[in-house]
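Fill-in record for Pectin acetylesterase.
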Amino acid sequence: MIKKRWEMKKLLWSLFGIILLNIPVNGMMMEFDEMEWFTEFNGTKMFQTKSDVYSEAKFPMVGLTLIQSAAAKGAVCLDGSLPGYHLHRGSGSGANNWLVQLEGGGWCDTVRNCVYRKTSRRGSSSYMEKQIPFTGILSDQAAENPDFYNWNRVKVRYCDGGSFSGDSENKAAKLQFRGKRIWLAAMEELMGKGMHQAKQALLSGCSAGGLAAIFRCDDFGKLFPPSTRVKCLSDAGFFLDAIDVSGGRALRRLYAGVVKLQNLQTMLPRDCLDRLNPTSCFFPQNLINQVKTPLFILNAAYDSWQIQESLAPKSVDPSGSWNDCRLNYAKCSPSQIQFLQGET
């Protein structure tokens, strides 16, 4: 997280567990779109991430399940197609434990951007992969994922462009902003597949999915009886309403567009809206004090996405003085590091 560590602790420590890592990555839950597939000379299918190369055989390839009941509930992707998820069943001691991960993938803040988005897997299940590898926190390898490897593990696909929060539409552009309905439809289906019997349940998410995990944390907790241990984990989802290198607020402008386009002023937490404007209520720093379910926040001390898109985006750096620092914080000058740490 790009902020003084003592400020973060002051903000969060009284209520939540927090982990700050000095690593230049956007989250520890590997997102599928961070992988690059290729085939070795011997025909083995491989995929490469930012940190390593893996064989497809090492991880389970988990099929996509479309939520057939979703259409009748209006719980559809941007283009009106059915939403979906991937489920890998647990076993042994984890057979009655559930981990639900909300997929990330940014947001669309204009009609044009959302129309483009609905021609991709981020806005339509028609473009979603039929199978994806479960890695990281979704892996079934005990050595890699000792805490959750044998749990029921679910990845809910992200196709609404608003962090599973909207419930509106744009008829002229044929856009459906139904993230909240998708969330409800997915949870109803999973509860019917055994999640209602969970002894332990963890709602997780990365990036825009990490933000969604904060939005939906208490909703998730309310699904279960008091006997179920329920917690939430937001990985690289604590996006700051911070001043960028030009003195403006690039991320606030983006979020304002999302909130207006999806009419989120009717969907965001009421206790926040009673205090602040709707755009401010899309920022986690203004929400977490009201979350009652145990919430853990994981963020890099130098989060690459927040540097590149929020603090020093190209659009506010016409001279290019932040180019090297933007791509690799190890190349930042002392004054740039001071800025990233909130010391200037």
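KEY FINDING: The longest strand covers residues 200-206.
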